[in-house]
Specification:
Layout: E1 11-14, H1 20-31, E2 35-40, H2 44-53, E3 59-62, H3 70-82, E4 87-90, H4 104-135, E5 139-144, H5 148-151, H6 158-178, E6 183-190, H7 196-205, H8 207-211, H9 222-232, E7 244-247
Parallel strand pairs: 1-2, 1-4, 2-3, 4-5, 5-6, 6-7
The structure holds nicotinamide-adenine-dinucleotide (NAD).
């Protein structure tokens, strides 16, 4: 293992990597020697542009994770393209606003879609990855949760926090249950990170609403999250298994 390329030889599936945090993760992993599998839902051009930026080091796979079998299709196609997968970063996610005043049908649809994309798709990928990892001497799972899953969330986006809490709990179960199979599972819980998701919120509620309770006064940059993901994939890091990494500028200290 080279120090400049600590992730050499690893193939890592990164969901939702056509933009935002996912694209930064794919770039960083590639810079450290890994081959990212760039998954996208709708932004095929973004995925192609990213692959170009990586000098062609990677594979592209499309799948709609809002469909119940989307994650299984993604896993099948990714494995067929890559031959072997060493790690999965469940990064794809949505944040839907729905008020308690909404019609029951809209309320229920919002909760179901949020759980489908943010949690069920990730759980399905974990299932497939665990079976694959057990047959191949191990692997790693990194689940992109959120501070919202730790401390609770705002009235208008309660499904988001609930999906992320579930993802943290799933990560802990995997860490406890599959560590002996060589599987390392960790969750990352960012506060606000400067991406489209955050810019949408700032456009609607103002910057102060996002950073007012962050002691360092700023959102995280996507590169900070990407650097952490790369670190957590280093073969030298095994005892991190089961941990939830807070990346929130001190806005939630536990
Ligand atoms: P983003 O909106 O820029 O990216 C989300 C990604 O998920 C996109 O690549 C998108 O294509 C993918 N995705 C969404 N719905 C999909 C679907 N149905 N099928 C396939 N792919 C789909 O957001 P981001 O800020 O980069 O978020 C990445 C992850 O980080 C998410 O899980 C998010 O919840 C989490 N997160 C973000 C912040 C933040 O402030 N930006 C904070 C905490 C956690």
């Amino acid at each position: 293992m080279s120090h400049a390329q600590p992730l050499a030889g690893q193939t890592v599936l990164v969901t939702g990597s056509s933009g935002g945090i996912g694209a930064s993760i794919a770039e960083r992993l590639s810079a450290e020697g890994a081959r990212p599998i760039i998954h996208y839902g709708r932004d095929g051009r973004g995925a192609e542009a990213l692959l170009g930026k990586l000098g062609g080091n990677g594979l592209i796979v499309q799948a709609d994770l809002s469909s119940p079998d989307g994650a299984f299709t993604l896993w099948r196609d990714a494995l067929a393209a890559a031959g072997r997968i060493d790690a999965v970063a469940n990064n794809a996610g949505i944040r839907t606003e729905i008020s308690v005043d909404a019609d029951p049908a809209d309320w229920r649809a919002a909760w179901q879609k949020e759980f489908q994309v943010n949690f069920f798709a990730a759980a399905d990928l974990c299932k497939e990855a665990l079976v694959h990892f057990r047959q191949n001497g191990g692997g790693r799972i990194i689940n992109m949760a959120s501070r919202a899953g730790q401390r609770g969330y705002t009235a208008d986006a309660m499904p988001y926090g609930a999906t992320k809490a579930a993802l943290i709990n799933l990560t802990k179960s995997i860490a406890r249950s599959f560590g002996r199979d060589g599987v390392i599972a960790v969750a990352i819980a960012p506060g606000w990170v400067r991406t489209d998701m955050a810019e949408d919120f700032v456009a609607k509620y103002g910057k102060e609403a996002a950073v007012g309770d962050i002691p360092i006064g700023e959102m995280a940059e996507t590169e900070e999250i990407a650097e952490l993901v790369a670190f957590l994939l280093r073969p030298s890091q095994a005892s991190v298994n089961g941990a939830t990494f807070d990346v929130n500028g001190g806005s939630y200290i536990r």
